[in-house]
Design brief:
290 residues; Rossmann fold; two-stranded antiparallel sheet; 9 helices
Length: 290
């Protein structure tokens, strides 16, 4: 868990605790080739070290389990069967070549396999035949955000060719099944939210209240990443770091704590927390303070 993940988790936890709601820990381990039980253990240790707790999760149970997405395949299979989908055998290289997408940009699927007979497209991924609609998302941080999903995203994948379920479908199904009413996550996921809202409408599921929080910046003012050599939470724990110093720096980077306060517990921030107070300061994160 890196510092950017930790800041978003802290914000989501503060939002729920200040509202008197329930905080849910869900393990999104859809990519089985990259996940390990040890990673889940580290995640739980990191969150607890920061002073965060949860009301439902894989270790504490709850009424909406299981809380690992790798154990929720029947829910996804049922949802997929209700949608207008088709198999696609196009590779990423072929899609990018067909769309002439600029480097780094997500290409819009050109619909190559859309009208192919199903029997001629065995294997491959499963794409949703996206309906024409402009989706408006009311975001608690950014405000209104609109996207023509068919034009700006195209028919997107719901299940990959290797059998792994796509994030877009899984979170929509799980949010509804777990009765999630509020979702707070990083601003880099805002662009994909209209796809989820469109899926919710197609499946007759409720739409949660969304808030996409600003991303943590490194010393150069850019999104904090590995190139900044920022320590992850496990590294800070291992070297005897102070969790209240970490929480203080995370809170200060959001405008929730004055510069003179060097240490604070997550619990101490709950009483005065309001999402409207969160600021996108774009100030360099002080790694030396940790």
């Amino acid at each position: 868990m890196h510092l950017g993940n930790a800041r978003t988790a802290l914000l989501a936890w503060l939002q729920m605790r200040a509202a008197g709601g329930a905080f849910v820990l869900r393990i999104e381990d859809l990519d089985l080739g990259r996940t390990r039980p040890a990673y889940e253990d580290l995640l739980i240790e990191d969150l607890r070290w920061l002073g965060l707790d949860w009301d439902e999760g894989p270790d504490v149970g709850g009424p909406h389990g299981p809380y690992r997405q790798s154990e929720r395949e029947p829910w996804y299979t049922a949802a997929l069967a209700r949608l207008d989908t088709y198999p696609c055998v196009c590779s990423r290289k072929e899609i990018r070549a067909a769309t002439l997408a600029p480097h780094g940009a997500e290409p819009v699927y050109p619909g190559t396999c859309r009208e192919r007979p199903r029997q001629s497209s065995q294997g491959g991924a499963w794409r949703w035949r996206v309906p024409q609609a402009v989706v408006r998302v009311e975001d608690a941080w950014r405000g209104a955000f609109e996207q023509d999903v068919a034009q700006e995203a195209g028919d997107f994948v719901l299940r990959r060719s290797d059998g792994a379920w796509a994030y877009q479908l899984a979170v929509v199904v799980d949010d509804a099944a777990m009765e999630v009413t509020h979702v707070l996550r990083g601003a880099d996921l805002l662009e994909s939210t209209p796809r989820q809202v469109l899926l919710q409408r197609a499946l007759g599921l409720p739409t949660p209240h969304y808030a996409h929080a600003p991303l943590l910046c490194g010393p150069d003012g850019e999104k904090l990443s590995k190139r900044h050599l920022a320590p992850d939470i496990a590294a800070l724990r291992t070297r005897g770091g102070d969790p209240e110093r970490v929480v203080a720096e995370l809170a200060r980077s959001l405008g929730l704590l004055p510069r003179g306060v060097a240490r604070v517990s997550a619990r101490a921030l709950v009483a005065d927390f309001e999402l409207a107070r969160v600021q996108n300061l774009r100030i360099p994160f002080d790694l030396t303070a940790l």
